[in-house]
Fold this protein.
Amino acid sequence: MTTTCAAVSESPLLRLSGELRNVLWRLVVIQEDHVPYTNTGVEEPGLLLVCHATRSEAASIFYLENKILAHVPSYDPTSLVLLKQRFLALDLTTADHSCIELSIGGAADWSNLQKWLKLIFTNALRRKPTYDSQTTVQESIIVGMFRMVTAMRGQEMSWKLVASLLEDQRRTLALLRPGWELKSATHE
């Protein structure tokens, strides 16, 4: 039986030049449509599951050259946390988020939004909503909350203080839309 290293070195495909392999990998893993990323992850193309060698070469192409659509239902940042973990596991930079778009939908949920804001404040996440036109008052308030939390990051403030400052905006959101009411608010 051939060992893995020997099998890789004997593979006609893996003996091609790196430039030619990258062209082939792009033909296989680049998708015309967005790649959906949810709380359960993403369906990776079979090429990434063939062997460690092809995965190490093709994963960065798949994750950085496709448009990833991260689903953020009810402002739940779980998919963004999982995506960041995936990028770190693959040793990919997370500084450039141009390949990631957000799909925010579902019900208003203050506890989820507050988790996301806290992740931004603690620098555990960088990706935040960027409503292009901010067509609603709610979107403007939410963008303002993320800007405020980002500006306070690195200051000598506790999350508890920042959360209390966000409370005024939460009250305004509650006047605009059900789901932002006080019963779901927590500061921890």
Notes: Helices lie at 4-10, 18-29, 52-65, 78-89, 110-121, 137-152, 159-176.
